[in-house]
Amino acid sequence: MSGRELYQHGDYCPTRNIGWCTIHGILIFGTHIMFNIKHSLELLVSAAIAEATGLSNCNANVIYSSRPEFGDYQANGIMAIAKQLKSNPRELAVRVVSALQSNDLIADAQVAGPGFINLFLNDATLATAATRFAHGEQNLLGAVDHPQRIVVDYSGPNLAKEMHVGHLRGTIIGDSIVRVLEAVGHDVIRQNHVGDWGTQFGMLIAHMESLGENSTKVHTQLADLETFYREAKSRFDLEPGFADLARSYVVKLQGGDRDCLSAWQKFIDESLGHCEDIYELLGVTLSKDDLRPESFYNNELADIVNALREANMLTASEGAQCVFLEEFKGKEGTPLPAIVQKSDGGYLYATTDLAALRYRGKNLAAERVLYVVDARQSLHFQQVFAIARKAGFVPGACSLEHIAYGTMMGEDGKPFKTRSGDTVKLKELLDESVRRAHDIVSAKSPELSPEHREQISNVVGIAAVKYADLSKNRTSDYVFDWSTMLSFEGNTAPYMLYAYARIKSILRRQGEGVHPERSEVRITAVEERNLIIKILQFPEVVDVVASECYPNYLCAYLYELAGIFMRFYEACPVLKAESDLRASRVTLVSLTAATLKQGLGLLGLETLEQM
RNA sequence: GGGGGUAUAGCUCAGAUGGAUAGAGCAACGGCCUUCUAAGCCGUAGGUCUCAGGUUCGAAUCCUGAUACCCUCACCA
Question: What is the ipTM score, two decimals?
Fold first, then answer.
């Protein structure tokens, strides 16, 4: 049972324009609350079910109709309720329909099939709602009924190396989720849990130190982090003295040695600079303020282990400090440990995550914590969540969710690598996409200036990579393929950006003739009606993305919106229409533009006025 | 071996709480530019939703089993 309080009988009060039902004094289909046709229908139908059966809390099960003749929405809940009551579903559906309170949202409700109720929306209400949006009397996205403080952990690259394609998904999926949550009114705290601590840094600092103290030189050396890491690793493996030096640096680092710390800091700053360049290029909203690196929790780790010991959750096993939980079994059903302290006294990933979770629960007062992390870490997070709950590190009501995503594969179905088997640097991937976009832009629009073409290909190239990822269900692995991604057809960023550019072109050409903020939207063709309904459904999909964290729902919606607009564009002349009709259509075009721009914005994509 | 995941058109992918005739794009074939950007629109063709059972008025979706592939299971993150 989510959020919203249920209908209480007899609470309706009509309002002047479109709005209607008040539930516990809250205007649902009105101005305050997120405008949401589906919720309104659910409330209306469940009220009618209550009226017809005396049952409260019934799920009307309202969904989009699969075919036009079945209406705009359909209520499928009747069959289940009839079964529960051992009554005839069709008869019940008829009684529910006649129990529907008169309202101006539903124009017609028809019983069909075994007990479906097909709902047809009122054209005048749709037109009025669209007009109100255009006039700015109602926001496309309003505030959620219960704003939450939500911590979102995403991106989290390892600073020892350069960002590679493996970091793309978490970074952009997380960024989109964060934008959506904020848009619906939640209080979002971003956390970039970067890896800046661990044994590998001893090796890197040792290598850096040996190259000299000169800071400009360091900057140059670290320009290619990947090569730098490889060199350090190779020396670590081959030079006997170097490995010892590296290990001694680790010890000194952990002991708080000032020189070592300052060298480490130098390295971290350089590496962070690389990340920031990527974030800038990707248009990701993470900033320095969102950094909570692993080292941030260094001083908490001993206390985490102590707290677990005091809670009697700790077991020594093979020299390590472990937490064994009933629900986790390892090989041959033996208990599976989560190790929080190594036999040499060192701490691990799980320890840091427990500290982070306690910080988020206690210090940040999170009500919901989202971990946008690779699906392969699922077991790790299940363990960490279970331990944190049992140890009381987070409030019981706090929701902990692993927002898992799959792996990016190459065309061979194996994890995406270069031909030589190396990981692909994110920077190189993005540069190549922009380069390919540039070739296409130059071929399609040779009349544009070189600067303009460059600007377009920058936006299109980045958007293509992001959209190709965001448009897929995050839980599954997917095949990265230049040809499908940059074919610029179908459900792709270029298609969406092109639709937007066409829209803007109309609005430019119409000049000062029409003022959408004072014009009336009318429905004179089915393409107009379809477009209006789709626009009004924007809040519904955003709502689902905010709760389920699947950005591909939003992509699918925007693709459909763009498609419906294209059909409107083909069928309904805008600038050639006369007077009121022209004003109405220009207004619709303007609303479509606003919705597309906002939707793409929630995905973290820029738009182009022209392409 | 335990646990988790995936299997949908030739290819790449959608299919939220079980709903009516399973959807897109690419590739193939055929239409539409002297009219608001053809990076577009319309149409044709393409499916035993891995297999076998089960639950249900109704299953790609839920349950059981099988097969294939992937991930994961003690001191990496």
Answer: 0.95
